[in-house]
Design brief:
With 416 residues, the chain is α/β, with parallel strands linked by helices. 68% of the residues lie in helices and 6% in strands. β1, α4 and β2 form a beta-alpha-beta unit.
Amino acid sequence: MNKFWIILFHTYVSKLKTKSFIITTIVTSLLVLGLTNFQAIIDLFDKDEKKTVLVMDGTKEIYPLFEQQVLALSEEVVVESFEGTEAEAKEKLASENFEGYLVISYNEEKLPKATYKANSITNREVYSKLEQGLQQVKVTLATTNVGLTAEEINQLYSPVSFEMVALEESAKTEEELNQARGLVYVLLFVIYFAVIMYANMIAIEVATEKSSRVMEILISSVSPIKQMFGKIIGVALLSLTQFAFILLVGYISLKKNMESMSGGFFGVFGFGDVPTATFIYAIIFFILGYFLFATLAAFLGSLVSRLEDVQQMITPMTLLIVIAFMIAMFGLSMPESTIITVTSFIPFFSPMIMFLRVGMLNVPVWEIGVSIGLLVLTIGALAVFGARVYRGGVLIYGKSSSFKDIKKALQLTKNS
């Protein structure tokens, strides 16, 4: 057991000191700081910058109503009446700080139409607000022409009353579903990126040691299971260290920016009423998913002796993770579909998809137990098989061409 701890802490400390780990942690923390201060950054570069558009109303009637509609739609887009010619409008655009000009006229049905002209039409926010405002004016004029009063128009366009009620007593309400969906969405991304990044790290770690021929010495003094799981748990501790630092930075930044808001940190995101069990299941499925793919990555990494071959060898594993993630994204809108139910019991998909179901539905405990049991059994079987492949794989040198090397590794293990 002493040798196991030596390998574990060596893997942890050596990776903790690497420049790549330090740089990745710093860059990710800066990204988190940027995201949590996103609005402040936008306000810094876009302080009270209103986009003013000149309006040339050829109808002499529409502008007052149009101005009201645009003002109701946006505070950033401002319209200003202009009585001059188009040539004069172009001159004002060149000499003053105007975004563009809008020419309004009537069509054959005496309904408004317009042409927007600007030096550049890349700012979609401006012309979309102008279009929406003019559309509201058109609706008002059209309904007035057929004799509808203002009150009748308001009744016609008022939103329909539509409520949703779940008949099952244990079913989640719409608010609870939205809260769960937000949490599940965030945690799915965490599981996805963590599994890909740290599983790759394990495969690269094994291939690096093998390329330096250190593995030949290690394999003769330490059992393959101790060696493999020493690396897996060492990288797991490394990932927890990195996540803890990044989450701490994010929490402090969010708390600083949102301390004046009611409900605290989780209340801001609507996570305040999410059951504690959801967070517990998130941790369970994250850990099991990590060990599943980390074990797979360790023995795949043992089959290559050159770093450039690592990505080729673990590509099928990466594709499994990507497929699971894509199915989970589909399941956010349809968590009760058959494909989600079936794939939640497939070990390589269940860390994401069963967690999705647990977060958004009231899943029977026996289903969760079956999914976790299958995951644990798969990890155990993969560990036993992986250890055998690992022991023989670290003795294979040269270019790794295909998964036929697994058979070769097993033969070497048998003969050793």
